[in-house]
Specification:
The complex is a heterodimer.
Chain A: H1 2-37, H2 60-70, H3 81-97, H4 138-159, H5 163-194, H6 199-209, H7 213-216, H8 218-231, H9 256-281, H10 299-324, H11 332-368, H12 372-394
Chain B: H1 18-21, H2 24-39, E1 64-66, H3 81-85, E2 91-97, E3 105-113, H4 122-126, E4 132-134, E5 149-150, H5 152-162, H6 169-173
Antiparallel strand pairs in B: 1-4, 2-3, 3-5
The chains are: A mainly alpha, B alpha+beta.
């Protein structure tokens, strides 16, 4: 029991340090990428204090953190003090708590790879690289904790007692709640195919068959991918922030460490989205011919698995960052139209296809004369292409929302147009 | 402005083709643009170590200078055209009778408030004798407001400093004959 607690503590410490360090340094990476995409050099000055050593600006995150710590933490007089303090703590702790069930590797070797009589008895079982191993509702827990982000945003907007913050909070809540549904549908497809809610089982299943879910359910991947962007509030879905024209919305009134908690938890939401994408659709720690698939591992394999998982997550995060400078922000009606008119139907189609496959897949595979995963991949990609075409032709993106002169097809008749 | 205003020209957006409607080809095109810029040459000038070189110092508008003529006297004839042209009234001239025979007036004092100046270059345009010019020096700084009010000596010293790197513009820009020269 004591050993179990110690191991859990070590894992929590590793995870927290890793998360905070990664958040700090990925902010630097994000600034670099932002600069490079805009043909600038980015932060490259801050190095070791009091010397002229610059080390490519790697001291920047420390300087950024110090700035937030020493900044005046101003609490406006008109806020609801208790909720104002509670909101950033809620969103931050919920974001961190998600990682309790997210595996950041596979397992460590039994007995830590040492002869059995050198180590305590409790280590005979291989240690799973997840803070709370064996939680059967893993993915549900992720969804539940992720949903609390909405509370953080709404509370922040409400407690600020400022009409624009409140509007910002409501705007964010509407976006997050809308995209929870496609997110859930995307996850549901994988859960249905795997038959388990545990993230490590989902990875293990992909590792055993060697077919990643992105190959088998491309439509589900697409839905989860878009919803993941929207849930983490990244461009092109960063309406919760929208610093250029909507002035940050719900956290306008925050400063100092409380603001930092919001910003860091936003970053952690991006980590969560990346981890989910990698674990559910890109095989987690699995890479063909390199990591093996079983639970019996040696030290090198264990380390390679961690590296592969984190490498995939990093690649996803880099894609998130590139996307920020590639696609323009949606307008709010476009955002909602995408969620309800495009992603929700696509998610439902994916769910129906997967459910049908789980029931009749083996017969269909026999009929096509293909091995089962290959037949499912063929089906999945066919459905993706057809439904994508149907959706894009049936729901064309509307970019023109100007008030109309005279009657237009599908628009208001001329006399009903409000003229400002 | 009302939407049914007759003077409003109503422009329709171009209709999206199939590749635009399916979104992905255009999205991919956007991503390639971003990646191309990610890897392209950077334009940043690392300021204290490197200095920005104006591509054409003739048309760069930096700190002012007061030009000297061949005898080292200030060229200005205190006609007040620059002070009149200045949109922010940052030029202050006190004219006096010229000690030299070739002109009537000369500036006894000539000050420019560099903090007030908007570096529009109107003074340079207005000057009939090409006495005031804008150099390509851009990094001017000072510790007080008073220090940033440049007097005649300071403006002439800017000329002495930039004389070699930036010869007087008049000959190169407009071929204006200098005073005393015949066409």
């Amino acid at each position: 029991m004591l050993l179990f607690t110690i191991i859990a503590m070590i894992k929590i410490a590793l995870l927290l340090a890793g998360l905070m360090g990664a958040a700090a340094y990925l902010v630097l990476v994000e600034r670099w990428i932002a600069a490079w995409v805009q043909d600038r050099l980015g932060p490259n000055r801050v190095g070791i204090p009091l010397t002229k050593i610059r080390i490519f600006g790697l001291g920047q995150p420390i300087a950024d953190g110090m700035k937030f710590i020493f900044k005046e933490e101003f609490t406006p007089g008109h806020v609801d003090k208790f909720l104002y303090f509670l909101a950033p703590v809620t969103i931050f702790s919920a974001a961190i708590a998600v990682f309790a069930v997210v595996p950041f590797g596979s397992v460590l070797p039994a007995n830590l790879g040492l002869p059995a009589d050198w180590v305590p008895e409790g280590l005979a079982e291989p240690i799973r690289l997840v803070v709370a191993p064996g939680i059967d509702v893993g993915i549900l827990y992720v969804g539940a904790m992720g949903g609390i982000a909405v509370y953080g945003m709404l509370l922040g907007g409400w407690a600020s007692n400022n009409k624009y913050s409140l509007l910002g909070g409501i705007r964010s809540a509407a976006q997050l709640i809308s995209y929870e549904i496609p997110l859930g549908l995307g996850i549901l497809g994988v859960v249905l195919a795997t038959g388990s809610l545990r993230l490590d089982v989902i990875i293990a299943q992909q590792a055993q068959t060697g077919f990643w879910n992105v190959v088998l359910q491309p439509l589900g991947f697409l839905v989860l991918f878009v919803a993941g962007f929207a849930e983490s509030g990244r461009l092109p879905f960063d309406l919760p922030e929208a610093e250029q024209e909507l002035v940050h919305g719900f956290h306008t009134e925050y400063s100092g460490m409380k603001l930092m908690m919001y910003l860091v938890s936003e970053f952690i939401h991006m980590f969560i989205a990346s981890f989910l994408l990698v674990i559910l659709f890109f095989g987690g720690w699995h890479l063909w011919g390199l990591t093996g698939s079983g639970d019996v591992v040696s030290w090198p394999i264990a380390i390679v698995r961690v590296a592969v998982l984190l490498g995939k997550v990093l690649a996803t995060i880099l894609f998130f960052m590139m996307a920020r400078w590639t696609w323009a922000r949606f307008r709010f009606d476009q955002l909602m139209a995408l969620a309800w008119k495009v992603m929700l139907p696509l998610g439902l189609v994916n769910l129906v296809v997967v459910a049908t496959w789980v029931e009749y897949g083996h017969r269909l595979a026999a009929l096509l004369g293909l091995p089962e995963p290959a037949a499912m991949a063929v089906c999945g990609w066919g459905v993706l292409v057809v439904s994508w075409l149907v959706v894009t032709l049936a729901v064309p993106a509307t970019s023109d929302n100007r008030p109309r002169r005279g009657p237009v097809a599908g628009g208001l008749p001329a006399e009903e147009i409000e003229v400002g | 402005m009302k939407p049914d205003d007759e003077n409003v020209r109503w422009i329709e957006e171009p209709k999206l083709g199939l590749s635009g409607k399916t979104y992905l080809p255009l999205a991919f095109e956007g991503l390639t643009t971003t990646i191309r810029h990610l890897l392209s040459r950077k334009l940043t000038v690392q300021f204290p170590e490197e200095r920005y070189e104006a591509p054409d110092p003739l048309i760069y508008r930096g700190v002012h200078r007061l030009n000297r003529d061949e005898q080292g006297r200030v060229k200005c004839v205190a006609c007040f055209l620059c002070a009149t042209a200045c949109p922010v009234h940052c030029i202050d001239i006190v004219a006096a009778e010229s000690p030299w025979p070739d002109r009537e007036k000369y500036p006894e004092s000539f000050t420019i408030d560099e903090l007030r100046c908007i570096f529009c270059g109107m003074c340079e345009e207005a000057c009939p004798v090409d006495a005031i010019e804008l150099t390509s020096l851009f990094d001017l700084s000072g510790k007080s407001r008073e220090e940033m009010v440049f007097d005649k000596a300071k403006l002439l010293s800017v000329y002495d400093q930039t004389e070699d790197s930036e010869p007087m513009k008049s000959a190169q820009l407009s071929q204006t004959p200098r005073p005393g020269e015949t066409e």
